[in-house]
Amino acid sequence: MPSRSDDLCLLGVDGGTESLRAGVFDLHGTLLASASTPYDTSFPNPAWAEQDPRDWWQSLGESVRAAVDQSGVRPEQIAAMAVDTTCCSVVALDEAGQPLRPCLIWMDVRSAPQTEKVVAAGDAALRVNGDGHGPVSAEWMIPKALWLVENEPEIFERAAVICEFQDFINYHLTGRWVASINNASVRWHFDRSRTGVPESLLEKLGLSALAAKWPAEILDLSDVIGGLTAQAAEHLRLPAELPVVQGGADAFIGMIGLGVVQPGSLAFITGSSHLQLGLSKTPFHAPGIWGTYCDGLLPGSHVVEGGQTSTGSVVNWLKNLYGVADYEELNDDAAQLPPGSEGLIVQEHFQGNRTPHTDPHSRGAMHGLTLKHGRAHLFRAAIEGVAFGSELILETMCDNGFEPERIVVAGGATRSDLWLQIHADVSKLPLTLTAMGDAPLLGCAILASVGAGLNPDVLSAVDDMVKVARVVEPDATAHAAYQSSYETYKATYGSLRSLRAGL
């Protein structure tokens, strides 16, 4: 292992939906400087969302050059780099790695009709989709590839490679075609515990040709892909042969940046929506659960996934409805109310339910209203409804063998003490917050440190580079007070579904 030097630094790159961000870190996980460069998204038709991969490459150069310049670090001090990107951003490329058409990015859901065909295939590979019950997201690789076959067959035939945003960037950095086990496991139906490539599923869909278009080599996170080519080095203004280390999908690399690398831990990523990503010692599959994904994060790990479609977006909707400029006033007023919002229940399914009901037709609801209830009640009840939805996901995971022992939270909810306390109280679990807010960027730096040989493995690197900022402890009395409201929340969905069925 090379000796650790305080002069060495690490480069993380996060390719997001709207921009590409680069950050320079020291070996202890401190961010020295970062820079972001935006790119455009086009929406040619409803449900379509496309980007030009060449824009990613230009943004990569601008962001890396700016971040290194601002850090004051000499290019030769960078020990290694790693990249994460959005997943399910599918590109069709020629032999030279140039795009044959714009990328179908993750939010492009034109392939919704193709998902029905995937579910109907009834293949064993679909066990990661609610144990075969579905749904299969239109965001994923195989539905999008099937759309290409059915709607742009000439593009599919001409494509030498069909891969992810991630793979496009790494190819142009190193000249090697490789895929990340993270993307492949969680979004391509690739499963090392079975056949690897889901050949049976592809055959049933008439997609057997797709396997030959995927990168043949699939690397684990922190594996070294190769060194920067001369052209890439010039573009980034970094030394040629600088090690490029395998990353993955942004949210999952964020797990590493949050220190969620041990079985029994869970990353709770909050924002407009909520995402729950846990690590289990053993595999399991069940309705209402996505996963587990074999080796989806680290070798031997089994990643379980849950998610809520509308969370912060519901609370923001209320804020805008009230005409309030910020959340401080609303949080202060809501904090004065008791747990349960004096009988008011909110079902947060404003845009449907992702897990555990997987019901896109479910809708938001408020009930228990009295003339006593005011603005603060509605605001607090909305936060409680989001927390109840999160707890139902955790409960579903627990019922199927995964009981989180440690939850690390990131994202928008961390800016509100009220949000955090309500979530902790409802679940009766402490919430850990880390010092570094940009978890995916730090996750890339952690992977780069392992690839450079500066840490022996990801777990050791996390110990060195992830710092705990604080822990929000649950209140047992508040937890007990929430139980009646939580049971009412759970009953709400079934009652409203029965009403919908009767209409």
Mean pLDDT: 93
What percent strand? 15-25%
In CATH terms, what is the fold-level topology of the largest domain?
Answer: Nucleotidyltransferase, domain 5
Number of DSSP strand runs: 21
The structure class reads alpha/beta
Key terms for this structure?
503 residues; alpha/beta; Nucleotidyltransferase, domain 5; 2 domains; seven-stranded mixed beta sheet; six-stranded mixed beta sheet; 17 helices; 38% helix; 20% strand; globular
Task: Give an overview of the whole structure.
The chain has 503 residues and is an alpha/beta fold. The chain folds into 2 domains: 9-248, Nucleotidyltransferase, domain 5; 259-503, ATPase, nucleotide binding domain (Nucleotidyltransferase, domain 5, 2-Layer Sandwich), CATH 3.30.420.40. The chain has helices at residues 53-71, 112-120, 141-151, 153-158, 165-174, 181-187, 199-204, 208-213, 230-236, 250-257, 312-322, 328-335, 375-399, 417-427, 439-451, 458-465, 476-502; strands at 9-15, 19-25, 31-38, 50-51, 78-85, 90-93, 103-104, 161-164, 178-180, 217-219, 224-227, 243-245, 265-270, 274-280, 290-294, 302-308, 345-347, 365-367, 406-411, 431-434, 468-472. Strands 15-16-14-13-19-20-21 form a 7-stranded mixed sheet, sandwiched between helices. The chain has a 6-stranded mixed sheet with strand order 3-2-1-5-12-11. Strands 4-7 form a two-stranded antiparallel sheet. Strand 19, helix 14 (417-427) and strand 20 (431-434) form a beta-alpha-beta unit. Helix 10 packs across helix 15 (439-451) and helix 11 (312-322) packs antiparallel against helix 13 (375-399). The longest helix is centred in the C-terminal third of the chain and has 27 residues, at 476-502. It is globular. The termini are far apart. The relative contact order is 0.13. The model has no long low-confidence stretch (mean pLDDT 93).
